[in-house]
Amino acid sequence: MGFGPGGIDCEDVLADVYLYLDDESDDDVRGRIRAHLDGCAPCLRQFGLEQDVKSLVARSCGGDVAPDTLKSRIRGKLSDVVIEATHVEYRAD
Questions:
Q1: pLDDT at 67 over 60
Q2: What sign does the CA torsion over 30, 31, 33, 34 have?
Q3: Alpha-carbon span 84 to 2, nearest angstrom
Q4: Domain that includes residue 35, residue range
Q5: 19 occurs within a structural domain
Q6: CA nearest to 18, candidates 4, 8, 6, 29
Q7: What pLDDT is recorded for position 63?
């Protein structure tokens, strides 16, 4: 649990800002992020910048949406990479 407004730290809010903008976080996290943004002017400014960037990209890229199957495959690959990065092998010399 964070120590900022909404019980979440600025670092965590900014790390998940695109999930929030894309409505891809659960209701509890969305509520905590919203509460944080309501009480933290620096994060609200950064959120506004990210929102502007997202709008600009959407206008420039025609608003194409990736199919759910592609999103699912990418999430799976990202999970595999994280698991591989945390796997440590010890060898006796």
A1: yes
A2: positive
A3: 28
A4: 5-86
A5: yes
A6: 29
A7: 61
